[in-house]
Amino acid sequence: MDKYALTVENLTKVYSDSKNKKENKALNDLNFQVKQGEVFGLLGPNGAGKTTFLSILGGTVSKTNGNINVWGFDLDKNPRQVKASIGIVPQEVNLDAFFSPRKLLELQAGLYGITKKDRITDLILEMVALKDKANAYSRSLSGGMKRRLLIAKAMVHQPPILILDEPTAGVDVELRNNLWNNVKELNKEGVTIILTTHYLFEAQEMCDRIAIIDKGNLVALDTTQRLLDRIQTKKINFKVKNIDKNKILKMEGIQFKIDSNDSISVTYEKNSLNFGEIINYLSKNNVKILDIVTEDGDLEDVFVQLTNK
Q1: First-residue to last-residue Cα distance in the chain
Q2: What is the DSSP letter of 50?
Q3: CA dist 241 to 247, 250, 264, 279, Å?
């Protein structure tokens, strides 16, 4: 039986606009669960309600209705235990430039009331690959190191749930990969990861399950693979030998496009026909195929289909 790190029931947040006498529903009756030990993606366009949800979870915004249970603790009845169960890595880099990583972690541990003998500062620095920079000024760290230090700060009280809010925004590809290797290692250690990101390929690569919200509504919740399976369109690129650009190719349910003298792209519905039928058709029309590259729909296609953005 699955154990849940987070349970959200009928969560609603309404902002009142007294000037225009209107109400704006930032979150509308959200229901979902996050399993212990998984990497869970929370996706949505700007203004979808992701930040509002994380702010409620972090205790900086009050919900209007609904229930949130974090690691067995009710947000209303046990707010301190809820805060102790989560570590939030913010989108913005907010570090004191003149503190070293070690001093920052020691200070953060003190704020959580962790006694010196119970602190694991060195272990955390090692986990995020910052041990050799433990005593350097934070201002001297690279962008990727600062991001890793934010993760370290969120881990000082050893929370079972780590929430990453756009953790790789503005980070280059190499640093992004290093950061995700860190996150994967934490997940292997049993930490449940909740992730928001605008990089959809990142969510596709990292997440076990994904929830997509739009205008405060939950529009999809499933495993990453099942979401990808929703996309029915398949695209194939054929590299061919010297085809006439004016040649007419027609098959029912198939869209042919002659891109150049040596390239044809084919688009069709996945379950509408057998791939071999296309090969046979091209062969009968004296098209010599040199190479084939297939493209399946990705998470971006799912996202656009569900949110129209």
Answers
A1: 37
A2: H
A3: 13, 19, 10, 14
Q: Is 0.90 surpassed by the pTM of this model? A: no
Are the CB atoms for 161 and 191 separated by under 8 Å? Answer: yes
Q: Which pair of tokens denotes residue 70?
A: 């974090």
Domains and CATH numbers, the chain: 4-229 (3.40.50.300), 233-307 (3.30.70)
CA distance 235 to 263: 13
pLDDT in tens, 47-95: 889 989 999 998 899 999 999 999 999 999 999 999 999 999 888 888 8
Which of 259, 253, 117, 127 has its CA nearest to residue 181? 127
For 245-296, what is each residue's pLDDT tens digit?
Answer: 888 898 888 889 998 989 998 887 776 677 788 888 898 888 998 888 876 6
Alpha helical stretches, state H, 112-264:
121-127, 143-154, 173-188, 200-206, 224-229
Residue 189's alpha-carbon distances to 33, 36, 164, 185, 192, in angstroms, are 21, 12, 17, 6, 9
- Angle subtended by helix axes 101-111 and 143-154, to nearest 10: 20
> Cα 288 to the chain's mean position, in Å?
42
